[in-house]
Automatic annotation (TrEMBL):
Taxonomic lineage of the native organism: Eukaryota, Metazoa, Chordata, Craniata, Vertebrata
Protein name: ARB2 cotranscriptional regulator A
Region Disordered: start-end pairs: 202-249
Ranges annotated as spanning the membrane: 98-120
Family annotation (InterPro entries): AB_hydrolase_fold (IPR029058), Arb2 (IPR048263), Arb2_dom (IPR053858)
Length: 405
């Protein structure tokens, strides 16, 4: 290949300039890192950030639910304001989370009608959990409705904390499902799948080690150094939240350490032992996955007791969960999944996997799918009840058709 002298000189100049530019960039980066290492962010930000201490009741938050189930400020009448303190997103988020916990513990929208029950025969000092059930949940001889929420921070009786705070109780909680079910003669169980552990405050590091760090075994020292290294990497978190929060550790609740474990435990000890001949299930989001996992673990029992299942934007996957063909076939017949979609309510949608049929919930918002499909779900249950009351000779010839919802 022939290279012209002029082109060759230009090429050398271009390489040299690129090298100089890269070196300058490295020097700038090193200078910036050195500058940041000498800034005490704790002292810089601490004076401007409020303490992470929040009210313990709705009254102290100055909020209350009005006659329409909407959360409103008691003095201004305005809806909840997330950005309470401008440019302090983490503090605002902590306040929002604290309000969510207060709503669950103090609002009493479930405890007034339901009694709680420990679901683990635990020792006195062992972590415990609970769920809600109507007075006749275990003794109702006819029908039982089981409600399984999705994953995350939502607690028993809630579909979405965001809806409770920003919309109303009807859309964000299971209250409408509970009230209608009880009116129509169902016993009701409200599962609590997201309470999987308790948090306890850690003892100071010195108390935990009980010895001088120089006497630490190499493996323990490596773990400690790894933890310290991880803390150093959380640069952004330190910048936004310089206040030192108490360090906690999580102790899992026996037989309830995951939503799937909780669902299985309640099934074994309560649902399956209840007297109801017909069990109905409403499962939202991750609750659908938990139900499919329950079927995998207790297929014969579920088939013998469950009459119909209504899922709302379920995230289950019969392939990933390795559900058998017999389970897939049962889901096609006994289950319907109302999913987020721009199509009108109850519009049939293409099946993604070989399991329960999919229909539009009439909304594109995931958290609203349960509320938007509320009427359709009970209509669907009524169809299955009608099917069960038919004589056995006609039952097989008149299966519940999903298109007749």
């Amino acid at each position: 290949m022939i290279v012209r002298a002029g082109s060759f000189r230009f090429y050398l100049v271009w390489i040299t300039m690129a090298q100089v530019s890269a070196q300058e960039e490295k020097e700038k980066t090193a200078a910036l890192k050195d500058l940041l290492s000498r800034i005490d962010l704790d002292e810089l930000m601490k004076k401007d950030e409020p303490a992470l201490v929040f009210p313990q009741t709705l009254e102290e938050f100055e909020y209350a639910f009005n006659e329409h189930g909407q959360l409103r400020h008691t003095r201004t009448g305005e809806p909840f304001v997330f950005n309470y303190k401008e440019d302090l997103h983490r503090w605002n988020q902590k306040r929002y989370e604290a309000l969510g916990e207060v709503i669950f513990t103090c609002a009493g929208f479930l405890t007034a009608a339901f009694c709680s029950l420990l679901i683990v025969d635990a020792e006195e000092d062992e972590p415990k959990s609970f769920f809600y059930l109507s007075e006749d949940a275990l003794t109702n001889p006819d029908k039982l409705l089981v409600l399984i929420q999705g994953g995350g921070v939502v607690r028993a009786g809630q579909w979405a904390r965001r809806l409770i705070i920003n919309e109303d109780l009807d859309s964000g909680t299971q209250i409408p499902f509970i009230n209608r079910a009880m009116k129509e003669g169902y016993g009701v169980m409200v599962l609590n799948p997201n309470e999987n552990f308790v948090e306890v405050e850690k003892a100071p590091e010195a108390e935990q080690s009980g010895a001088d760090s120089s006497d630490e075994p190499a493996e323990k020292r490596e773990r400690r150094e790894e933890r310290e290294g991880k803390k150093k990497k959380e640069f952004y978190e330190k910048y936004r939240n310089p206040q030192k929060e108490r360090e906690t550790e999580r102790i899992p609740i026996r037989e309830n350490s995951t939503p799937e474990d909780h669902t299985l435990h309640v099934w074994d000890h309560f649902i399956f032992k209840s007297q109801a001949k017909k069990v109905f299930v409403v499962a939202h989001s991750y609750g659908g996955l938990s139900f499919v996992e329950l079927m995998i673990q207790r297929e014969d029992e579920v088939k013998s007791r469950v009459t119909a299942v209504a899922m709302t934007d379920s995230v289950h996957n019969v392939w990933h969960q390795e559900a058998s063909r017999t389970i897939q076939d049962w889901l096609k017949e006994k289950c319907c999944n109302w999913v987020s979609s721009s199509e009108p309510l109850d519009t049939p949608l293409d099946a993604m996997l070989p399991d329960c049929p999919r229909r539009s919930a009439g909304t594109e918002r995931h958290e609203l799918t349960s509320w938007k499909s509320f009427q359709s779900i009970f209509k669907y249950f009524d169809k299955h009840l009608e099917e069960q009351t038919k004589p056995p000779t006609t039952r097989s010839a008149n299966r519940v058709k999903h298109e007749d919802l």
